[in-house]
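Example 3.2
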Amino acid sequence: MKNIYILGTPNSGKTSIALGLALKFRQEGRKVAYFKPVGSYAGASFRGDEDALLMKEILGMEHPLETIVPYIAGPSYLSSHSDPSASLNKVRRAYESIASDSDIIIIGGAGYPHIMGSLGLDAMSLIQELQAIPLYIIRIDNDYSLDQTIFINRYMSCKGTPVFGNIFYNVPRSLLAKTEGIYKPTLQRLGHRILGLVPGMPDITSPTVKEYYEVLGGEVLAGEDRMEQMVEDIVIGAMTAESALDYLRRGANKGVITGGDRSEIALAALETNTSMIILTGGLYPDVKLIARAEGQGVPLILVHYDTYTTIEKMSEVSRKITAGDKKAIKTAVDNIDQYVEWKGILNALQ
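Structure, written as tokens:
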């Protein structure tokens, strides 16, 4: 039995890499299963872990979700779980049930590597307990992202289980050259292996308006039939009315956040390539704005949070792959084929 543990930070691409590797290894004739020791609630509509549900359906696993993901962690998990030995035993039993009829198990990491460290269920502890090969998925936003990657690699090495390889995933077009010319060579110079660099693909990785709405809630004032539009970028409409149009023209398929009392900014946004407009502060806009947004098919969403809180909550949003999204599933496998050294990973599992 060979295990791969995929760790990273939220929205780094752990799910896409896990899915792509699982299906690629299946094409190579291996019996592949999925296990996620520590999951998280998807939201009020589904009290379970979405990754576990996706992989269960795609891989045709017969195990119940409670076995595939034995723990669901929240910020106050210690209120109901406080025994490290019992927690690890529960994970071990679930793992052994899944491992009984599989060649390879792909283990999905929690949102952050440190989650549930109080019970010995953090990434490092689980990698050692389950004797897994760790892969680190890098979400590269800026230079600090590279620092975080170096820190994780050094920490894992100090603990005696070095990262087998790092994969840059969904690299923005604006950072591709810097990733190739600076970030990648820096990691290699420090002795950290790079197994892939997957460029950003907005058409399958950008969240939809609906996914933002599910996190923010609020009231849809217009464009309710266009909630599946993708949102590639977020723009804060805090500029003056005079400079708004030139500023808003710089981004395509964007979401614009502005106060409900800033109708002039929202109207300017409607003259550019905009996927949605979010009005903050619970202030209803002028009816002309609602009519214009409806006419142009741009979702107009009113939320009762202030702008800062709205932006903070939106950072939690990411594109979710579903079992019925054939395009995203095919792309996940194609990315592994084209951009990731999957043969090296498979050879390490022999």
